[in-house]
Design goal:
Chain lengths: 287, 510
């Protein structure tokens, strides 16, 4: 019996709960260390960035007004789905010459990190919210609320774990996001879109684009309907570009330094807080 | 109108008819027909202002290197009150050096408990000189003495008192983390609440263990300079607080100084964007408290007389020079006519005039520049086809005064609805459904404040949670407290001031 011909996967993007190709139809080759082609990935453009921000904005009010309990369950569901597809992600990571044990470790940590942030959805408002003892006859309290649409610039290293570590705190906090995946290996990011799709995450809450950062980052971070940027590309030029673009519409910017994504320092509620706005409500006390 | 009142009075004596002061009465208040107000000016004869003020750097008043001075005027009579130094890069540099030295040598080595005791001293000494500070605030900025005496100065003291207590309790503020100070903070404050904004900036910065270089606005530098005297009197270590005066260029020197670790700015969104851009690519942290166009939403079930007073307070407090002013009124259709009539009646009772007169409700517009800007917007409103209504009050002959103003028949896209006027000018729109109100409220680049007026609690929480702004005043407006975080969503700013949340921008977490 001859060897079966393997069915190769076509990698597209994940936008608005669907899997479109780049509007430009352009692709670029993803190769292993020997230069062998693994797949063609979408090379997204400015138009794709814009097309991703629209559903992100549309999904925001629904996702942010879900109950904290429900958001926690959805994040937990993502972890469950990822657990069921572990092997696929291990294989995908190994395509770019990651050792099997490292790939397994990365997938396991990604699942655990999702569980970690799933548990925070109904707790961070208690940790960061306050009842304020004002001196006048008013009841006064402050609560965190989601910032809005967050642009996430993922790094090249740990293409699954880093992506999960960035997306989880952002959506746990009720934001929607547009993610620029690892440029070197975007394949696990696209497959992660399939996991999100199967996990009751509303379409548009997370949108994942692939391509050349240089061609997308400027457009994403200068987009007037993006409220915040979560960036991991820390060279001076990129930082300055993002900061300057942010000033056009007073975007919140978090430049995040991560030496080792496997480190559990990436599990803390302050990462959620970075993409929250504090709202204070006053009401008179009287009869 | 007085006839009607008299008639009612007679009736009420006999048959218990509604009095003008009854809740939800449709009769209007009419004090002016019954008596005339004598002037009641606050006397400032117990203190002397200097003719000329220098920078406060390293614990001493020092002359500006370039020797240039600017003048500050009283906007209610356009007379010069005093001159003050114009800061240049040399002055800013020596202030930053003094702040760095104080941080390295003294302030960062002091225990939180001792730091707190200094800040408590500042609070107490502000209280001690409160009447003087209130009078100077009203002279320099044009705000009614009643507001500077009862709001600005007591609150400024309260902010110092509140944050003083945090200095030795930071370990309890950030769960799981250790808070460290940032170093030298550059702080730039506006002219609408001069000493109060100084307290919002300096108190949390010092409590967290930082030292500061602060620049007050060029229209209102005086209370900051009296505060410098208070720092001396309190024995605050030299260089912990430095005050450099000047205009926008002096502020830019602070923003761009390489040895400043953090910038805190309160002012316009336009300048905020320039500052954010100039900080691009640096490691400086920043907080911005910028403009607003707050929507004040009134539902049909609102208690109408309380609401009218709330609307008045929302837009005419401090001549409308309030970033969180309720400058857009959204009224549900069913009560619009009645509410607007009551609002017009209530506006007629407002006394516009001498800021130092204790009867005054609306004082002087802060500066010629702002006066011209407000008048320009009033012209824009007329040209946009809106219907204008102004109080018929008399205005003083000199000084910058503006009548309380309403604009009706406005569209969401009108400039007077979209842009911050920063004066006593209110636009009025109507709505039918709660969704429409929320949509109109959020249709703005800003997100600083919002008001909700209704008798129904569940409606307050629903609408309050849908308005994208940092402060929601429900059945009240323009209330402030040191324990209460304040700050904007969207283009109204980044970060919070006040409360526990106001400490975050002044620490790094380990």
């Amino acid at each position: 019996m001859s060897d079966r011909i393997k069915v190769l996967k076509t990698y597209k993007t994940y936008v608005d709960g669907k899997f479109p190709r780049s509007e430009s139809d352009r692709t670029y080759k993803i190769t292993d260390s020997k230069g062998k082609t693994i797949a063609n990935a979408c090379r997204c453009t400015r138009k794709d960035v814009r097309n991703a921000v629209v559903p992100a904005r549309a999904a925001f009010s629904g996702w942010s007004s879900r109950s904290a309990y429900n958001r926690g369950q959805v994040l937990y569901r993502i972890a469950e789905m990822l657990e069921g597809r572990k092997e696929q992600f291990v294989e995908e990571l190994m395509l770019t010459d990651v050792k099997k044990s490292d790939a397994e470790n990365e997938v396991q940590l990604s699942i655990d990190r999702l569980i970690y942030f799933a548990g925070w959805t109904d707790k961070y408002p208690q940790v960061f919210g306050t009842v304020n003892p004002v001196a006048s006859a008013h009841f006064n309290f402050s609560m965190p609320e989601s910032t809005g649409v967050v642009g996430i610039i993922a790094p090249d290293e740990s293409p699954l774990l880093a992506l999960v570590s960035l997306v989880a705190p952002v959506i746990a906090g009720g934001n929607s996001c547009v993610v620029l995946a690892s440029e070197v290996n975007p394949l696990p990011a696209v497959s992660f879109g399939e996991v999100l799709h199967a996990s009751d995450v509303p379409g548009g809450a997370v949108n994942i684009l692939t391509g050349f950062r240089d061609e997308m980052l400027d457009h994403l971070t200068s987009h007037m309907d993006v409220n915040a940027v979560f960036n991991t590309i820390l060279d001076q030029n990129t930082r300055k570009l993002i900061d300057e673009n942010a000033s056009i519409s007073i975007k919140r910017v978090e430049h995040y330094e991560a030496k080792n994504w496997k480190d559990d320092s990436h599990e803390n509620p302050y990462l959620i807080l970075n993409f929250q706005e504090t709202k204070t409500t006053w009401h008179p006390i009287g009869v | 109108m007085s006839e009607q009142i008299k008639e009612t009075k007679t009736e009420s004596a006999t048959n218990g008819a509604q009095k003008p002061t009854s809740p939800n009465s449709d009769l209007k208040l009419d004090f002016a027909s019954f008596w005339e107000y004598s002037t009641a000016p606050e006397s400032g004869d117990f203190f002397d202002l200097k003719e000329s003020y220098d920078h406060f750097i390293g614990g001493k008043f020092v002359k500006p290197v370039k020797g240039r001075y600017m003048k500050t005027i009283n906007p209610s009579n356009e007379e010069v009150i005093a001159e003050f130094a114009e800061g240049t890069s040399e002055d800013v540099d020596s202030a930053v050096k003094a702040a760095r030295k104080a941080y390295d040598k003294e302030w960062s080595k002091l225990s939180g408990k001792e730091r707190g005791k200094y800040i408590y001293r500042l609070a107490r000494m502000i209280q001690g000189r409160s009447r003087e500070l209130a009078i100077v605030e009203s002279m320099d900025g044009g705000k009614p003495i009643r507001e500077s005496r009862d709001v600005d100065i007591p609150l400024a003291a309260a902010y110092f008192f509140y944050y003083a207590g945090w200095a030795d309790k930071l370990d309890y503020a950030f769960p799981g983390r250790e808070a460290k100070p940032l170093g030298v903070c550059g702080q730039i404050i506006p002219w609408n609440f001069p000493l109060l904004m100084l307290s919002w900036k300096i108190a949390p910065a010092l409590a967290a263990g930082n030292t500061v270089v602060l620049k007050p606005a060029e229209a209102t530098p005086l209370t900051a300079l009296i505060f410098a005297e208070i720092c001396q009197d309190a024995g605050l270590p030299d260089g912990v607080v430095n005050i450099v005066t000047g205009a926008g260029q002096t502020g830019a020197e602070i923003v761009n100084h390489p040895d400043v670790n953090k910038i805190a700015f309160t002012g316009s969104t336009k300048v905020g964007k320039i500052i954010q851009k100039s900080l691009a690519g640096t490691d400086k942290k920043f907080t911005l408290e910028l403009g607003g166009k707050g929507a004040n939403i009134v539902f049909e079930d609102a208690p109408i007389d309380q609401t009218v007073d709330g609307i008045i307070n929302a837009i005419f407090f401090n001549q409308g020079h309030v970033c969180c002013a309720g400058s857009r009124l959204l009224v549900q259709e069913g009560i619009a006519d009645r509410l607007i009539q009551k609002l017009k009646d209530r506006m007629e009772t407002l006394i516009v005039g001498d800021p130092l007169d204790k009867n005054t409700d609306v004082g002087a517009i802060n500066s010629k520049m702002q006066f011209d800007k407000i008048n320009e917007y009033i012209e824009i409103g007329k040209n946009e086809g809106a219907t204008i209504h102004q109080s018929s009050c008399n205005l003083p002959d000199s000084g910058f005064f503006c009548r309380p103003t309403l604009f009706m028949d406005v569209a969401q896209s009108n400039r007077i609805v979209q842009e911050e006027i920063f004066g006593p000018v209110l636009t009025i729109q109507t709505f039918r459904t709660p969704d429409e109100a929320v949509q109109k409220a959020n249709n703005t680049q800003y997100g600083l404040s919002g008001g909700v007026w209704t008798d129904k609690g569940s409606k307050i929480f629903k609408i309050g949670s849908q308005i994208r702004s940092g402060v929601i005043w429900s059945n009240t407006f323009n209330k402030f407290d040191p324990t209460s975080p304040f700050g904007g969503y969207k283009e109204s700013g980044v970060g919070r001031e006040g409360g526990l949340h106001g400490l975050y921008p002044y620490v790094k977490l380990k």
